[in-house]
């Protein structure tokens, strides 16, 4: 058995856990403050929250950790529950996605850790601690020659970047074959699907209306923020001529898997995660128009931005997401298990 720690913010952590559990030959136990997801086949260890009941005191331990609030009962109960599970289950390894504190806790119990690495300026002391004590580091981006990892982790020392195993983007969907244009019967509008994150910038309805006015002939579907939310946006993404999205790993993976041209607008995230991703997209062969922020009125108007993006070849996402990330992720875990045997 191995464990997989799933951070409760965002959805990409859980998607990756599910993909790994479906690919590995060993049982995977989930550890998370999220409720047990439907269809999860292994054990699920529900963890108490450690971020409720503010105010939180001295959360960084003088800058050595990211989140370890003093005097929070959930913090103590959370660590105790993981410790009890490790003692009772004797896992062969734990994948941590993501938490420096969880990496440290598992390693202090003598358990090998595979740590998921996110893009961003992660040269601070807690990140360096987590990187150094993990047995393996995994990044969900393409990287044949190391340049992508250098761009996505700009402040991280070379000796850390060299340890990152870039396995490619991991999407919930099988990759599309080719990137055929979306068919449009006579008189039908072209379609743009907007994917808003669960946090960060919000596209309110009045602003959306002003953007739509600049793009006659386009039908807009907006998902997330204070608009409609669907758990599985596959149909809306696959049927779009253009996807307007933030630069989160999960959203980009799904756009890439479905081979749709995209307008990418990074949102504010800790450690400049999405802005580092946007830099890579802007300087690569990807079918994406990268905007540093969401302008209400681009110089050429939203109609021109969407039309230019729609002409990009969505097939160029193939290197970003080729459908093999889950198998490569599982291979890294298998290597750690073999070394620990």
UniProtKB/TrEMBL annotation:
SUPFAM superfamilies: UDP-Glycosyltransferase/glycogen phosphorylase (SSF53756)
Any one GO molecular function term: hexosyltransferase activity
Ranges for domain Glycosyl transferase family 28 C-terminal: 235-276
Record-linked InterPro entries: Glyco_trans_28_C
Protein name: Glycosyl transferase family 28 C-terminal domain-containing protein
């Amino acid at each position: 058995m191995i464990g997989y720690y799933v951070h409760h913010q965002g959805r990409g952590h859980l998607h990756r856990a599910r993909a790994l559990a479906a690919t590995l030959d060993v049982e995977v136990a989930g550890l998370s403050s999220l409720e047990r997801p439907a269809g999860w086949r292994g054990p699920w260890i529900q963890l108490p929250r450690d971020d409720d009941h503010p105010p939180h005191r001295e959360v960084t331990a003088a800058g050595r950790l990211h989140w370890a609030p003093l005097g929070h009962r959930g913090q103590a109960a959370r660590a105790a529950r993981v410790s009890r599970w490790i003692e009772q289950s004797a896992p062969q390894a734990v994948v941590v996605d993501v938490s420096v504190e969880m990496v440290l806790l598992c390693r202090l119990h003598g358990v090998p850790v595979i740590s998921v690495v996110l893009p961003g300026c992660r040269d601070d002391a807690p990140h360096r601690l987590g990187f150094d004590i993990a047995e393996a580091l995994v990044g969900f981006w393409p990287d044949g020659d190391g340049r992508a990892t250098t761009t996505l982790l700009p402040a991280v020392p070379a000796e850390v970047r060299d340890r990152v195993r870039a396995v490619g983007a991991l999407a919930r969907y099988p990759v599309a074959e080719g990137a055929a244009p979306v068919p449009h019967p006579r008189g039908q509008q072209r379609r743009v699907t907007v994917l808003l994150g669960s946090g960060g910038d919000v596209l309110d309805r009045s602003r959306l209306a002003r953007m739509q006015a600049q793009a006659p002939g386009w039908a807009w579907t907006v998902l997330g923020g204070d608009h409609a939310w669907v758990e599985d946006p596959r149909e809306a993404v696959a049927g779009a001529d253009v996807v307007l999205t933030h630069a989160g790993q999960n959203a980009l993976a799904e756009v890439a898997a479905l081979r749709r041209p995209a307008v990418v607008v990074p949102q504010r995230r800790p450690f400049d995660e999405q802005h580092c991703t946007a830099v890579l997209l802007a300087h690569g062969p990807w079918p994406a128009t990268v905007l540093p922020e969401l302008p209400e009125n681009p110089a050429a108007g939203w109609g021109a931005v969407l039309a230019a993006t729609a002409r990009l070849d969505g097939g160029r996402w193939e290197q970003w997401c080729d459908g093999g990330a889950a198998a490569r992720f599982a291979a890294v875990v298998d290597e750690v298990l073999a070394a620990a045997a």
